Amino acid sequence: MEKRIVDPEIVLVPYYPNDELTLQWYQDPELCKQVDNIDFVYTLDRLKSMYDYLSTHGDCYYIEYQNRLVGDVTLKGDEISIVICREYQNRHIGRCCIRNIVELAKEKGLASVKAEIYPFNRQSQAMFRSIGFRPSEGNWYVLSLG
Q1: Helix (H, G, I), strand (E, B), or coil: what is residue 100?
Q2: Residue 91 to residue 2: CA distance in whole angstroms
């Protein structure tokens, strides 16, 4: 995997272990609730297990914004997941990254992509809808690439 240039300020950097920084993102209880619908923060073991799984089963990238890592985004099969630390949310970084990952999905020949978004996560719902994703069964939002 190579870096993916999203725009002049955003680069997707292939995953590499960076536990000290990334664990900080997952120490935010609200962020953990948004992403995993859990009421606790990540331990180092949980973080390592997550990244080990995502990096071996998909295309896992860090989101670099203005030369600082601020989150991660993964395409695993046809599923997209994204996390942006609270300090950098609401700057359209996620929207730009999802569009780039949709392009990666097209490069891979996928017919559609999906993201699981919990009903209480209105912020993510609005972001994915703005890109063209539509609600599907359960908590899934789907975008046809055809």
Answers
A1: helix
A2: 25
